[in-house]
Specification:
globular, alpha/beta, about 350 residues
Length: about 350
């Protein structure tokens, strides 16, 4: 498809003269958001990240490209209540982009406690602090893996969406933006294939039938900013990702573009689905018509939010499971708590067997 470009200066201009905090600001999406924001004259930009090397890289780049920028680079974790409260209290950001998260599906299957602590409780603590210190807009970066999740990571991001949506009575405008895989992001498939091709192969794919939605890092960050500017109260924005791509075809094309013959000079090897992995991803929770926005590429899913009390009850279940499994890193208790708190959670075997029997 054609690349998506946001030309609306009004949308990009809403960051002008604002104090903006980007959590996970050193990551793939977070750092691109920082680049876009820096180019649109914010009053102050605060990069907040737990990984000092990432934060340092984007700090150096922005200082070089935008010497006029009032830039603050802070190291810290969204899991640390005092740290996130301290940052919000000191800088009083107008806008928060919450991009901090653990995102690797297989790694989170093996460390489910960390997915819940970082993604769910990290989002809860950051949202609560935003509420407390008068942030005007809070935008959660979510994923298509949150839809009918089959893995811990996706379920944790669905819980993040719930955390944000239940705050629809706040003076802060909370919203969430959901999109698919981002080309070239840390740990994504293209850098992996490139490395495998340069090593002479094989290029490994989990299953020939797997399809995924893709967009570029600049597309994703522009659409996040656009959706954030449109938000009025608790919306769950869904980005139009075009048609899904078969990962096998992507591998074939990358091998050809590198000047080799697929399956002759460079082999493509199927290694089997990883734990929690789906053959396909969905962007929507339901099949009903979505609400349109003024942007042709952005839609709003109407999803009835929980009350704060209902959400707190879910968080209590997760907290108890965390406490009960302190010594057990790969805890089954966390999985049980997720099944209890995320009604749309599905067994990947069931979802994949449905896909296998479909004509599509």
């Amino acid at each position: 498809r054609e690349p998506i470009k946001i030309h609306n200066e009004e949308v990009m201009g809403y960051v002008e003269n604002k104090t903006i905090l980007v959590t996970g600001g050193g990551g793939s999406i977070g750092s691109e958001l920082c680049r876009q924001i820096a180019a649109h004259h914010p009053k102050k930009l605060i990069i907040f990240d737990i990984y000092e090397n990432n934060a340092y890289d984007i700090q150096l780049e922005l200082k070089r490209k935008h010497p006029e920028l009032d830039l603050e680079t802070l190291i810290g974790s969204v899991r640390n209540t005092n740290r996130i409260n301290g940052v919000m209290e000191k800088y009083r950001p107008d806008i928060v982009y919450h991009a901090a998260a653990h995102k690797h599906v297989p790694l989170m299957e093996d460390s489910p406690n960390e997915a819940i602590k970082n993604n769910v409780f990290g989002t809860y603590k950051t949202a609560k602090a935003a509420d407390k210190y008068g942030v005007k807009r809070f935008v959660l970066i979510s994923t298509d893996k949150a839809v009918n999740p089959t893995n811990i990571m996706g379920a944790s991001k669905r819980l993040c969406e719930m955390v944000v949506q239940c705050r629809n009575d706040s003076k802060t405008i909370f919203s969430a933006v959901r999109f698919g895989n981002v080309l070239g992001s840390n740990g994504s498939v293209i850098p992996l294939f490139k490395k495998q091709i340069s090593n002479g192969g094989p290029v490994t794919i989990t299953d020939k039938r797997i399809i995924r939605y893709f967009m570029t890092i600049p597309e994703a960050s522009q659409l996040v900013m656009s959706a954030g500017a449109m938000a009025k109260c608790g919306e769950l924005f869904v980005l139009d990702m075009g048609k899904p791509v078969r990962i096998y075809d992507l591998a074939v094309n990358m091998i050809k573009l590198s000047g080799f013959e697929p399956n002759e000079e460079i082999k493509i090897e199927e290694i089997g689905l990883r734990p929690g992995e789906k053959l396909y991803e969905e962007l929507l929770m339901k099949t009903e018509t979505l609400d349109k926005t003024e942007d042709d590429m952005i839609f709003i899913e109407r999803d009835k939010p929980l009350t704060r009390a209902e959400m707190e009850a879910k968080l209590d279940i997760l907290y108890e499971a965390l406490e009960a499994s302190r010594e057990d890193i790969g805890s089954k208790k966390i999985k049980k708590a997720i099944i209890k708190t995320v009604p749309t959670f599905h067994n990947p075997v069931d979802v994949n067997s449905t896909a296998e029997s479909s004509d599509e």
